[in-house]
Design a protein that fits this description.
The protein is α+β, with helices and mostly antiparallel strands and 393 residues long. The protein contains 14 helices and eight strands. The chain folds into four domains: 87 residues, no CATH class; 143 residues, 2-Layer Sandwich (Alpha-Beta Plaits); 98 residues, Hypothetical protein af1432 (Orthogonal Bundle); 39 residues. The protein is 52% helix and 12% strand. Helix 6 crosses helix 7 and helix 12 runs antiparallel to helix 13. The termini are far apart.
């Protein structure tokens, strides 16, 4: 159970891209504090239950759509970068040496969080020295360093020590397991600290400096006392020596697992028009009845592009007489990827109910106008008949 928790954090909750997106959302919320609502700051809402209940994930769109507010410009620009996938680029990750870290944190004599801030500052200073003394023509200010922790539970403690058990012979009395009752097949440590380096420029320039940045990261790991550099050295050295630009992008699809999509598809996915699909429910209001029905048109489109690619590639392989080439494969995938772009809010609900309701209203209005015109025509004819009779009389 605890290992599963760690795996979830490692692969999903603190994924290298998801983590930096969380950091950027935090930056935007800090910048927007006190500027979004004149009556209540975001940070004060926790002390006001009524205001706090109004705070949801929709604050992202609220800040993003405040286009007239100059005070929110910086926060809005950060969220625009997220929507357009203009994100800091991941350079590398290394594990901090637990023994040296504990020794240094003991010397600091501060609270754990305050000590970790000092460690992060030392790591940053050492990174700047490595960059400034290298011949890689890199700028240390273009990089950010983050320290994060993950593990089986509470820092420094074995998680099973906080778990209480019940015996079937006494269902009312809780107890903890003795040491001899716990399996010896367990790790030596239950927690670890990682350091990550990101290139903070959001333009395309990282492609030009990627190999240089990774080589500097390798050098930094080797010379930094805080870093357990064995694995980091080997990994980065191998990547540097066998460097090849990535031809596609890997997505962790909930159904098909890891799927790779080609660069032209990535360019479409990274547009605001496509990112909009993240906020359009696949099954309309069904999520209000079935809690799991929260998937969106975004992941649906990714899955369709993947399946379309598999289908056309099988046809290409099995029926060579069709003359299917790579361009045909790409066109089919683009078509499958983009066919959801026309969906309105809540998908088919929008077209089946809302648009149909507008049409019915329009038809009713047309019918009323036609009736009024007909009544006006009858009234005019009646007036003419009356006038004719008056003339005759």
């Amino acid at each position: 159970m605890f290992h599963t928790r760690y795996t979830l954090h490692r692969q999903a909750l603190q994924h290298k891209i998801g983590y930096i997106i969380d950091v950027k959302i935090k930056d935007a919320l800090v910048l927007a504090d006190g500027k979004l609502s004149p009556d209540c700051k975001i940070s004060d809402a926790i002390d006001d239950m009524l205001e706090y209940t109004k705070l949801t994930d929709h604050i992202f769109d609220t800040i993003l759509n405040q286009s007239d507010s100059e005070e929110l410009k910086k926060a809005r620009d950060i969220l625009k970068d997220i929507v357009n996938r203009r994100l800091p680029k991941f350079v590398g990750e290394a594990r901090l040496n637990e023994e040296i870290l504990e020794e240094k944190m003991t010397k600091f004599k501060d609270q754990p969080k305050a000590s970790m801030i000092k460690v992060q500052k030392k790591l940053k200073n050492h990174w700047e020295k490595i960059i400034n003394n290298s011949n890689q023509s890199l700028n240390a200010e273009d990089f950010d360093i983050y320290v994060l922790d993950m593990g089986f539970g509470e820092v420094g403690n074995e998680p099973i020590g906080n778990v209480h058990f019940y015996s079937k012979n006494d269902l009312k009395t809780a107890f903890k397991l003795e040491k001899y009752q716990v399996s010896s097949l367990k790790p030596k440590r239950f927690h670890e600290y990682l350091v990550r380096v990101y290139y903070n420029k959001t333009d395309v320039s990282y492609q030009k400096v990627q190999q240089k940045a990774e080589e500097s990261f390798h050098e930094w790991c080797k010379k930094n006392e805080f870093i357990d550099s064995g694995k980091a050295e080997e990994t980065v050295r191998e990547r540097s020596q066998n460097y090849q630009p990535s031809l596609g992008k890997i997505f962790n699809d909930p159904i098909y697992g890891q799927i790779e999509l080609d660069p032209p598809l990535i360019k479409i996915i990274d547009t605001p028009e496509f990112q909009r699909l993240r906020h359009i429910k696949q099954l309309g209001g069904a999520y209000l009845v079935y809690p799991g029905a929260t998937h969106t048109r975004f992941e649906h489109s990714l899955g369709m592009a993947y399946l379309a690619g598999r289908m056309i590639n099988i046809l290409k392989e099995k029926q060579e007489d069709l003359g299917i080439d790579e361009k045909d494969v790409l066109c089919v995938q683009i078509a499958a990827l983009c066919y959801n772009l026309g969906h309105g809010p809540f998908s088919h609900l929008y077209e089946r109910f809302y648009c149909d309701a507008l049409k019915r209203e329009a038809l009713l209005e047309m019918t009323e106008v036609e009736v009024d015109r007909a009544n006006e025509g009858i009234r005019q004819k009646q007036e003419k008949v009356k006038i004719g009779r008056l003339h005759h009389s």
